[in-house]
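Hi team,

As requested, here is the filled-out complex form for the FE2/S2 (inorganic) cluster run. I kept the field names the same as last time so the parser does not choke. Let me know if anything looks off before we queue the next batch.

— J.
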Amino acid sequence: MPEFKLDNHSVSFLEGQTIMQAALEAGLYIPHLCFHPEFKPHGSCRVCIVHTNGRYVSSCTTLAEQGAQVISEQAEVQRQRRNLLEMLFIEGNHVCPSCEKSGSCTLQSVAEYCGMLSPTLPFQFPQRKVDASHPDTLLDFNRCILCELCVRASREVDHKSVFAISGRGIQAHLVVDSADGRLVNSLFASTDRAASVCPVGVILPKHKGFVEPIGQRRFDLIPISRQQEKAD
Ligand code: SF4
Ligand code: FES
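And here is what came back:
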């Protein structure tokens, strides 16, 4: 099989695999947010950047190449990831200490892995709504990082296209496909794949807040870098 080097590790791959796919199969972690092995790569968050062939690329969308040297665990690469993560934290309202997802939040865990402990940029404190219309599921738009995992899950697995991103740049935001934009009037069901895919605390189940105590949650127990990708 062809091979490339990821930092000091030799990684074999199948033709057509991306750097991310090959790394995950080899049990090697590259930080990422919008990539999930169940769905087509999206390439939007850029947190999975690596350095190869003289440039920075997103590892979830770049094909593995025979003999390539790929740098991931390097100070400059981590610094760039921290910048991207910092922007995600300041452009939303994440409020980690009181978030139901704290301890099982991918954004929080990736930030910890990359050493981004508190933002240095000013918080934007955007005005965003909460949609509590659905009997079983809450939408807290304050935390959306626009990864489009729910969009892809609803479209590709649930075949409903309940979620979409509207607007561009700083105006981009998640919308629900229903006459009044509320979840209760959409085709969404709490059993949908889209209901359990959100890496942060936007799409949350009702009626079971803080069932798992803080400190005993998924990433509290085992760091994200040591967990194979699995469904939430
Ligand atoms: Fe991603 Fe969650 Fe926002 Fe959907 S709601 S785009 S899964 S962060
Ligand atoms: Fe690769 Fe988001 S994980 S761009």
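Two things worth flagging: The beta strands are 3-6, 9-12, 49-52, 55-58, 69-70, 130-131, 137-140, 163-166, 173-176, 203-205. The CA atoms of residues 100 and 210 lie 6 Å apart.

Thanks,
J.
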